[in-house]
Amino acid sequence: MVVTRSAGSLSVLAALALWLSLATTPARADLFVGCISSCNGVLEYNGTTGAFVTTFVGAGSGGLNGPLGLVFGPNGNLFVSSVSTQQVLEYNGTTGAFVTTFVGAGSGGLNTPLGLVFGPNGNLFVSSGNTNQVLEYNGTTGAFVTTFVGAGSGGLGTPDGLVFGPNGNLFVSSNMTSQVLEYNGTTGAFVTAFVGAGSGGLIGPEGLVFGPNGNLFVSSATTSQVLEYNGTSGAFVTAFVGAGSGGLGGPDGLAFGPNGNLFVSSIFTNQVLEYNGTTGAFVTAFVGAGSGGLIGPSPLAFRPATVPEPGSGALVGLGGLLLFVIVTWRSVRRATPRGL
Question: Would you give the end-to-end CA distance of the chain in angstroms?
Fold first, then answer.
């Protein structure tokens, strides 16, 4: 017995397969850089080559003034701290269009918002530089929740970089005291000075990131280095990126890229530099000096390369397509003589 299917049924199934393949194509993990000088926006670069793609958030969009922190949220949108206006602004994660003032001016006492991070509970945590606090906001509405880390808790002075560690606790760079402080990830209670004052030569810590090896990497802005610390004990390991390596001047934002390498914003040279993620050896000026108008690069973020979930409109479309497939298939079966 030879089984045959009509061309119509095959074309419908092919269309369904094509739709599913498009719906599950991962987004390219491009690099986004906050530009704190005259460009006053967020620039996008190809995550593989470093080539300039576009001005993702235009100068002053939505009232932006001084983008010193940025993070992609659970909803896929980009959140940016606006230092001079004491706000956190939200932008469409695909187009860069302004969405809303997510955290209103001075909400909860916010003054000089710097680092941003979404916590395990889905809420947004913001370092309030001038009040020496970390404030928590509802991750969906932006409403003020609580002062997560109280003013000066554990000796906190000018908090900047924020990161939740593998143990679930919050780690905060204390710029004025040259430390990294650890706080309970649920209550905000002070735990310990994870990186002691000046450990390994640390002066003026800003960016923080946990690496693939589980260790903590810290940008030491004053010494133009990136220092590595044991991710469990906080003990100094090594100067991962040596002073001035590759022309590094005033390192701030840190991010491990999809290729496993470390990317560092070099404020004084208007570049983003790439270093081997295992050895710290200089690889290349990933974003060349001034590329796309880059002046004063500060925060960095790679767009998460996750599989996008179809929205409600796409699901409706899929439902309609599936219904069409079923109806067509049944009609084909009814029109096909039995036994074929």
Answer: 7
Tokens of 285: 């000026």
Q: Phi and psi for 209 in degrees, rounded to 5?
A: -160, 140
Residues 109, 20, single domain; the answer is: no
* CATH code, domain carrying 75: 2.120.10.30
Model confidence pLDDT, tens digit, residues 31-47: 999 998 889 999 999 99
Are 181 and 150 in contact by the 8 Å Cβ rule? The answer is no
Instruction: For residues 131 and 37, state if they share a domain.
Output: yes
**DSSP result, 236-297:** EEEEEE-TTGGG--SEEEEEE-TTS-EEEEEGGGTEEEEE-TTT--EEEEEE-TTGGG--SE
Question: Residue 201, Cα to own-chain centre: how many angstroms?
Answer: 27
Q: Which two tokens stand for residue 26?
A: 């991962």
Predicted pLDDT at 37: 84
Give pLDDT tens digits for 287-330: 999 999 999 999 999 998 753 443 433 333 434 333 333 333 34
Residue type, 232: T
Element holding 216 (H helix, E strand) = strand 216-220
Q: Looking at the structure, tell me whether residues 142 and 244 fall in a common domain.
A: yes
pLDDT at 25: 46
Quick one: what percent of the chain has pLDDT higher than 70?
A: 82
How is residue 209 written in tokens? Answer: 């990131």
Looking at residue 210, its pLDDT comes to: 98
Instruction: Calculate the CA 313 to chain-centre distance.
Output: 27
Strand-strand pairing, 78-82 and 67-72: antiparallel
**CB-CB contact of 163 with 231 (8 Å):** no
CA distances, 329 to each of 6, 16, 319, 325 (Å): 9, 13, 15, 6
Task: Take residue 260 and report the two structure tokens written for it.
Answer: 């496993």
Residue type, 133: Q
Give residue 16's domain range: 1-25+314-340
